[in-house]
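A quick aside before the break. I want you to see a complete sequence-to-structure record at least once, exactly as it would be stored in a machine-readable document. Don't worry about memorizing anything.
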Amino acid sequence: AREPLKKTLALLRLQAARVEDMVHHKNRYFTFSVEFADGQAAPTGAQAVIAQVRASIIDLHGDYGAGCTMPSLSLRFFDPSSGVCNVRVDREFAEMTRASIVVVTIIDKREVRLRVLHMAGSMRKCKLVLRKCLDAHLRKRLEGWAQVSLPPREKQNALNVHREAVTELDRTQL
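That is the input. The structure line, written in tokens, reads:
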């Protein structure tokens, strides 16, 4: 009588494990800008930005925050010319991550301000926001250059950098 019960329990455990594997993980995508106090572009790499966000999570939320967010926290897009970043994190820990992003004040020994521009629940919406940010950055640069006479080569370089960033965004699997 015990043998069929053991087999039934083993089958139930196996089915429960399969259901857990099939669970859809919901993510949140944060688009934020990196603004350096000296006003220069962000020459720092993407790894410096995500490392500082992770350090901020540890500072604010300790080992619990690190354990919750580290498996899912990843930098999905970074454009150094405009300073626009995108990170992905599990939906459960979105507010914890948002709080940690805004308290970052130093990256690579430079004073910085991270502003969360948008939080999205889908990759499609996130790409739309990132594209708007990149376009706005280009418009801002072109307007500034309209007042100052710059060689056409400088303007062409700016357009090429923008085109590369947009191409990279289109290729990115957020």
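Two observations worth writing down. The chain has a mean pLDDT of 83. The beta strands are 27-36, 74-79, 84-90, 106-107, 110-120. We'll return to this after the break.
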